[in-house]
Amino acid sequence: MNSITHILKEYPMASAFVQFAVLGSIGEWITLKIAGKGGKLNSIQIILKIAAWGFLGIIIKYGFFGYKSMLNSFVEAGYFPKMIYSTSFTKALSISILVNALFGPIMMYIHRIMDNIIEKKWTFIGMDKAVITLFWFWIPAHTVTFILPNHLQITLAALWSLVLGVIMGYAKKNS
Question: Strand ranges (DSSP E) for the chain?
Answer without folding.
Answer: none
